Amino acid sequence: MMIDSYLNRILCADCLTTMKEMPGNSIDLVVTSPPYNLKNSTGNGMKPCTTSGKWANAAKPDFKLVPKSNGVGDVWEFTQEMKNGHPAPFPVALIDRIIGSTNAQNAQIVLDPFMGSGTTAIVAMGLKRNYIGIELSPDYCRMEA
Fold first, then answer.
1. For FRET with 119, which of 73, 80, 100, 144 sits at 20 to 30 Å CA-CA?
2. What sign does the CA torsion over 93, 68, 103, 63 have?
3. E strand or H helix at 135, and its extent?
4. Residues sharing a CB contact under 8 Å with residue 132, sequence separation 6 or more, in sequence order
5. Are 97 and 71 in contact (CB under 8 A)?
6. Residue boundaries of the structural domains of the chain
7. Tens of pLDDT along 68-82?
8. Helix (H/G/I), strand (E/B), else coil: 50
9. What span, in angstroms and rounded, lies between the C-alpha atoms of 109 and 129?
């Protein structure tokens, strides 16, 4: 399936299955917060490649941030989203800073595989980027509709 059939849509599906169906090298930027506090979670998280200290096949070689985008430091503070039915929504300002810090030419297609309440899609549209959202929960998919 062509990537165009996924663009600017929120798919109510399992992200692992859906991402396997997408064409390779078609996503420019992934913004997500994976589910947490799961009873079956081991807490081990992702492990870096031990030989190079970097993620295997990480980020993209031509991916660049806009100039001076990392000038805000390591700790970012945002106001909590209060008018959102999701238990842990991204603050719009956080996603705006993340996506807005990327060069639009290098980050035209933004994927959020755990879309939740749809903040990534809202921000991507506002920044004139394409988005693909995947959400497993039918309740959250209905929220986004």
1. 73
2. negative
3. strand 130-135
4. 6, 7, 8, 9, 11, 22, 27, 109, 110, 111, 112
5. no
6. 1-34+85-145
7. 666 666 666 667 666
8. coil
9. 6
